[in-house]
Known about the structure:
There is one protein chain. By secondary structure, the chain is mostly beta strands. Helices cover 0% and strands 42% of the residues. The chain has strands at residues 11-13, 20-21, 27-35, 43-49, 59-60, 64-66, 72-80, 89-95, 106-110. The strands form two sheets. Strands 1, 2, 3, 5 and 7 form a five-stranded antiparallel beta sheet that branches. Strands 6-4-8-9 form a four-stranded antiparallel beta sheet, with no helix packed on it.
Amino acid sequence: MLVSSFAYAHEMTPTYPKWKLSIYNDLLVTKMEMFNKRNDVEYYEIAIFDEDWNPIPFVSSYKVFKLEYLSRVEFEVYIRARDKDRAEYICSRSKLNNGMPAISSMICSRFK
């Protein structure tokens, strides 16, 4: 017997974000938006990576945040200006916390 399932992921835009000067010295900012299409997930984690998938330090209001099903959220992410050329991806990953089998989704946007 063959069983298949279809998993809905979340969305994050823009696909190719750009860094802009922020009001803070030596920090750049980008604005992102997420939409939750998964009714089994309410929490998402944000991370920034270089081309080798090494994490890059960043600041945001929340690194893990709650996003209700079919809801949308806009958020800002800040990095040090010296890390701008290293930052390759900004990713969001669904955080599963109910202990039930499920598929974790990760969506990435690319800076370069």
